[in-house]
Design brief:
Elements: E1 5-12, E2 15-20, E3 25-29, H1 30-33, E4 53-55, E5 60-62, E6 68-69, H2 71-75, E7 79-82
Antiparallel strand pairs: 1-2, 2-3, 3-7, 4-5, 5-6
Length: 89
Amino acid sequence: MAPDVTQARPLGGTTLEVTFADGAIRHIDIAALARPEGVFADLHRPGFIASVRVNPDTGTIEWPSGADLSPESLYQTGKLVRPGTNTAA
């Protein structure tokens, strides 16, 4: 089980810097995780990624469209910038 997301910061385009409760930080291309259809279609619109927010109740990121991604998917994806206290990556 991955640690909760504590912060998400847009880096431009479709990339976010995501910080996890264990201190890990990853740069994640959200468009690479989500197909451009259904609830994820808006994630491929220019600028929409920046409307991201962290939901403290679910421990992950979400958007006004209702799209969200699991902390597990986020934790195992993207470029590791800083390892967390419990990560082997």
